[in-house]
Amino acid sequence: MGSAPHSDDEQSLADVEGEPCELLDDVDEDQAELSVQAHSPERAVRIKGVVVDHHTFVWRSLVRLGVPRADAEDALQQVFMVTARRIDDIAPGSERSFLYGVCLRVASRARRTVARRREVVGEDACPERVDTAARPDEMLDRARARALLDDILTTMPIELRAVFTLFELEQLTMSEIATLIGVPQGTVASRLRRARELFAEQRKRIEARMRSARSATIDRAAAPTARIGLTEGEGT
């Protein structure tokens, strides 16, 4: 089965999403040391290699699956602690597939926790790296695009969100995704189609809501001016 093409519009999603938190520049060694404790030297070497090689992929996956950035560090530790305990069960070469499966479970729990807390979307204790070369208007546009993407992804069931983000943001092929999440390529194609449809529907809905909100703001701002003009006219 051929891989679905990445549309120009959807390819831009990877550009607006932004870079991982700056803390990840140093997290590999900390996570690796945390995960290898109490393991034999051979296991420790393999665990450390898995952490160093895959920590950025795991962090991105967790955030894309709905883990708030403020909670991503704790979720990252959970994933690698599970991996350390199960390292002997992971066949060489299948580490990323195993890690993603753990990410799905950890993200599902994290999203339920967020729902219970009724946390406000967008409160971010771990800000993204600031692009000092970008103009203020570019940074604002990028922030708005990220907020729109986050809003849309939040509406997707996690199985659709997983396929959509792996294909559109990680730029994996459908064959790679099928291997990664352990489902047939036909299932991947079906989920991707449904996710794209939902993405398009939600984007239209959210953009319409944003236009309506902007229009209401403009109307409220214009109202005092109109009243002043009316008062002046009555006084003449």
Describe the structure.
- The chain has 236 residues and is mostly helical.
- The protein has two domains: 19-128, Orthogonal Bundle (Rna Polymerase Sigma Factor, Chain: A); 134-236, Arc Repressor Mutant, subunit A, CATH 1.10.10.10.
- The chain has helices at 8-11, 13-16, 24-36, 41-64, 69-85, 95-117, 136-154, 158-168, 174-181, 185-235.
- α4 (41-64) crosses α6 (95-117), α5 crosses α6 (95-117) and α9 crosses α10 (185-235).
Strand fraction: under 5%
Main beta-sheet annotation: none
Radius of gyration: 22 Å
The tally of strands reads 0
Q: Domain count, please report it.
A: 2
The first-level CATH class name of the largest domain:
Mainly Alpha
Decide which structural class fits the backbone.
mainly alpha
CATH topology of the largest domain: Rna Polymerase Sigma Factor, Chain: A
The average pLDDT is 77
Q: What's the CATH architecture of the largest domain?
A: Orthogonal Bundle
Distance between the termini: 78 Å
* Helix content class: over 70%
Q: Overall 3D geometry?
A: elongated
CATH homologous superfamily descriptor of the largest domain: RNA polymerase sigma factor, region 2, helix turn helix motif
| SSE string | HHHHHHHHHH
Low-confidence stretches: 21-28, 121-130
Number of helices: 10
